[in-house]
Amino acid sequence: MKNLLEIEIGDVWVEGEISNLRRQASGHCYFTLKDEGAHISCVLFRGNAVRAKAQPENGMQARLFGEVSIYEARGQMQLIVKQLEDAGLGDLQARFEALKRKLNSEGLFDPALKMALPKFPRVIGLVTSPTGAALQDMLNILNRRAPWVQPVLYPVTVQGKGAEHSIAEALYQLSDPSKYNLPHVDVIIVGRGGGSLEDLWNFNEEVVARAIYDCSIPVVSAVGHEIDFTISDFAADVRAPTPSAAAELVAPDAAELKGNVASLAGSLQRVLENRLRHSLTVLTSARRALMPRDAERALREPIQNLDGLRQDLTNAADDQMHSRRVRLREVVSLCAAYHPANVIDQKSERLDQTCSQIERAVQSAQQQALERLRHLQSLMRTLGPEATFARGFSITTNANGDIVKSSADLKKGDVLETRLASGKVVSAVSKTKK
Q1: Helices 243-250 + 133-145 axis angle, to 10
Q2: pLDDT tens across 167-212, in order?
Q3: Are 59 and 88 in contact (CB under 8 A)?
Q4: Could you give the 3-state DSSP secondary structure of residue 329?
Q5: Domain 2-89 in CATH: superfamily?
């Protein structure tokens, strides 16, 4: 196959859009050349790259001259690029630049409108694919750095037709949690793992950029790798190079916080010790200066002042430590309240109460319906024809089944049927009287 391609086809000119560019430390470049109907893998070795008229970039519309061959290790056809010329921006890149200019002119990227990230978020919203590796990376980092943080996943599709609307809807709903019965989040991370320009394109759609801009909660955009830039990165309050980096940005490091607390405690202790040493030095000097005179009387008030100052400093230190302990207990209690097991227990208890209420309501409705049925049966027995028959009355009908109400309606020879309380009587009219 390799020999056939190299001999029969040889060198060709090919034009298309560059994507999936990977530059190696060796200087070699690997990328894909594509158009609307197909794509082909390409390799530009360092020697040819140095002599090329232009350097490959993602989204670049390029004309390539090279040799068609086979990469035997993978059995994959590829183009060995010998010359590379810039043919203008590719369609996707042109759309990217046009939308970027439009939104920037409308002020969507204005740094003055960016919101600051909360220093100590308690609930973090994650708008990403529930099956992607990016989610697991963020969860691992959040659990390691800030185990008290409660992550809330809003699962969306991050690739393919219509994914941009799924992402935008998630941002709108998290921005108004009470309307959609969602938990309130302090900051939102929206993004996905790496991929080609086409894979990441949903984050270059205008609907996503406007949803980020309209969001009332700080948004961190974390799309692809460090070299990938999307429209959502410019619209977001903060851009993170990767989803993992986004998790590190929003969550404070517990180990670092503990170190800061320990450092502050050490600084406070050193300040107190220096103040005490200074006070002791002043006291010693005062004693020496006043010793020839009435030393006890002269030092009586300064000693009391020093004791008061020492007590005040001790109380202040104790208050600070107590405040930190109370704050720590509050954080632990809050974490426990948001623990999934406790939330599930609360929901289960509410479900049991609801089931009991429904069961009581059904039983009450059944009892009311039964009493209503009994009442109607009693009325039927009281007001129905059977009660009238039991009192000695009867109903007489003619041959057509019509009730006879007057003798004027009858003539001699008519056949009548009379219904009694028990049985019926059939008779013929022999004579009528008014």
Answers
A1: 30
A2: 999 999 999 999 999 999 999 999 999 887 778 889 999 999 999 9
A3: no
A4: helix
A5: Nucleic acid-binding proteins (2.40.50.140)
Residues 32 and 113: their CA atoms lie apart, in Å, by 38
Read off the pTM: 0.48
Separation of alpha carbons 348 and 184, rounded Å: 22
**3-class DSSP assignment, residue 332:** helix
pLDDT for res 400: 87
What CATH architecture does domain 112-250 belong to?
3-Layer(aba) Sandwich (3.40)
Cα distance between residue 32 and residue 21, in whole Å: 7
| 112-250 matches 2-89 in CATH topology | no
Mean pLDDT of the chain: 88
Which two three-digit tokens encode residue 168? 């935008």
- In the block, tokens 């003619």 appear at 398
Q: How far is CA 108 from the centre of its chain?
A: 22
Q: Tokens in use for 151?
A: 């992550």
Quick one: tokens of 88?
């203008």
Amino acid sitting at position 369: A
Tokens 């941009």 sit at which residue? 164
How do 415-419 and 395-397 pair as beta strands?
antiparallel
Take residue 248 and report the two structure tokens written for it.
């590190």
Which pair of tokens denotes residue 125?
Answer: 């919203």
Which of 142, 123, 115 lies closest to 248 in space, CA to CA? 142
User: Cβ distance 69 to 56 under 8 Å?
Assistant: no
Quote the CA–CA distance of 45 and 81 in Å, as a whole number.
8
For residue 202, the Cα-to-chain-centroid distance in whole angstroms is 17
- Mean pLDDT throughout 411-416? 87
Domain ranges of the chain: 2-89, 112-250, 254-337, 390-428
Residue whose C-alpha is closest to residue 146's, from 338, 342, 320, 341? 338
Residue in 250, 156, 245 with CA at minimum distance from that of residue 208: 156
Those residues with Cβ within 8 angstroms of residue 89's Cβ, 6 or more apart along the chain or in another chain: 59, 60, 61, 97
Going by pLDDT thresholds of 50, 70 and 90, the confidence category of residue 54 is: confident
Distance between CA atoms of residues 85 and 100, nearest Å: 26
The b/e string for 267-300 (b: 16+ C-beta within 10 A; e otherwise) is eeeeeeeeeeeebeeeeeeeeeeeeeeeeeeebe
